[in-house]
Design a protein that fits this description.
This protein is α+β, with helices and mostly antiparallel strands. It folds into two domains: about 100 residues, Glutaredoxin (3-Layer(aba) Sandwich), CATH 3.40.30; about 110 residues, Glutathione S-transferase Yfyf (Class Pi), Chain A, domain 2 (Up-down Bundle), CATH 1.20.1050.10. It has eight helices and four strands. A four-stranded mixed sheet has the order 2-1-3-4, covered by helices on one side. Helix 1 runs parallel beside helix 3. The longest helix has about 30 residues. The radius of gyration is 17 Å and the shape is globular. The relative contact order is 0.15.
Length: about 210
């Protein structure tokens, strides 16, 4: 059994997408970040960076005590290795997958997050920041479009944790002032993931939360 500490953010969606794809049994525990649940002492004991998502695996492979993990990329890697799914064991494909996973967690997520912040949440407009993050967002979409123009999935020929990591951020494209039609390969990839049964189930769960 996996406990997933969750809020319906792009990083939270990554883990429900994986869990629904893999069929791994899990329990969803809501963290209401609007009320500051992420700063509670019990949550901080497993999430020292006070962010979701976090998992607790009550049946780790070593047979030991429950194992907790924070950081969405680390969680995806752990779950892929635990289940043997969505991460190839073949050397080149595996490391291509990890390369794009790290691209998402180090670049795509943070830059698109800053785009959203300065466009929607900043207490006053900061034109330099708005322009800087919009330009970087467009650049990252171009990188993604080029990659997906040559292969069906980020890792190559197979759907993987790299796609799962990136998709929830692209799902927020309207908030980033991005017209997805301007990036046809990204649009095609986005729609193929959006219509997967596991994606539909994960999004329904998020709406309930």
């Amino acid at each position: 059994m996996i406990d997933l500490y969750f809020a319906p953010t792009p990083n939270g969606h990554k883990i429900t997408l994986f869990l629904e794809e893999s069929g791994l049994e899990y329990r969803l525990i809501r963290v209401d970040i609007s009320k500051g649940d992420q700063f509670r002492a019990d949550f901080l004991s497993i999430a020292p960076n006070n962010k979701i998502p976090v998992i607790v695996d009550h049946l780790p492979a070593d047979g030991g005590a429950p194992l907790s993990l924070f950081e969405s990329g680390a969680i995806l890697l752990y779950l892929a290795e635990k289940t043997g799914t969505l991460l190839s064991g073949e050397l080149r494909e595996r490391h291509t997958t990890l390369q794009w996973l790290f691209w998402q967690v180090a670049g795509l997520g943070p830059m698109l997050g800053q785009n959203y912040h300065f466009n929607h949440l900043a207490p006053q407009p900061v034109p330099y920041a708005i322009e800087r993050y919009q330009v970087e967002t467009q650049r990252l979409y171009q990188v993604l479009n080029k990659r997906l123009g040559s292969v069906p999935w980020l890792a190559g020929n197979h759907y993987s944790i790299a796609d799962i990591a990136a998709w929830p951020w692209i799902n927020a494209h309207a908030r980033q002032r991005i017209a997805l039609e301007d990036y046809p390969a990204v649009f095609n990839w986005f729609e193929r993931i959006r219509t997967r049964p596991a994606t539909e189930r994960a999004l329904q769960i998020a709406q309930q939360v």
